[in-house]
Amino acid sequence: MEIKTISVTYHRKFNLGDFESVELGCSLWGQIEPEEDAEGATQFLFEQAKASVKEAAMPLIKASSHQMNKARMYKQYAQNNTTDKGENF
Questions:
Q1: Which of the four pLDDT bands, split at 50, 70 and 90, describes residue 89?
Q2: Which pairing describes strands 20-31 and 5-17: parallel, antiparallel, or unpaired?
Q3: Exposed, middle or buried, 14 (CB in 10 Å: 0-12/13-18/19+)?
Q4: Which end of the chain is more exposed for a tag (fewer CB within 10 A), N or C?
Q5: How far, in Å, CA of 89 to CA of 47, rounded?
């Protein structure tokens, strides 16, 4: 089977707090030649779609106190739980 067109869709839902949320998404299509790597092209489109959603979400996240508190808690958790990987082997 010859693949000629690749489509990738990436969606992400963000909780803004106070029973509010926003869902952002991006769909990208690409045409490839028979000699091109379909898997590589798919991965490239996925990374591009993900970056596009992240870029669109950043102003909303920065304006959301709920998301900023969540980011601070995650960062604090990550700093407190940095252990030697060999300990859990």
A1: very low
A2: antiparallel
A3: middle
A4: N
A5: 32
User: Using one digit for the tens of pLDDT, what is the confidence trace for 37-63?
Assistant: 999 999 999 999 999 999 999 998 888
Distance CA(54)–CA(28), nearest Å, equals: 15
Distance, CA of 55 to CA of 49 (rounded, Å) = 10
Beta bridge partners of 43: none
Structure tokens at 14: 């963000």
